[in-house]
Design goal:
single chain, 103 residues, alpha+beta, two-stranded antiparallel sheet, 3 helices
Amino acid sequence: MLFDVLIDSKAVPCSISRSAILEIAEHCSEVCFSLPSYFNRNRGLIENIARRKYAEQTSRLPGRLHLWADDVVEPPPGGSPTTAAQIACADVRGVKAVGVRFA
């Protein structure tokens, strides 16, 4: 799915893979019947993951910022991986939806 996120007054084109959405959905109690529906219900969380990945980049490559299943899993030191849906990712200050396109 394609979407844009506003970061520091700049529209950043992004995409999230089907497997990344399913990874988040696996650890969520919500029941959704379609990926677009699940995406829309969890837009803030997905935007925050994109913002985190954007901030962690050491160099900015041209083009779209891609979110993969590995991007929504954070391995804690000495522990099992934790999905972004299980950690505090609800803080989306500074990030606004610019648009979303389903591809």
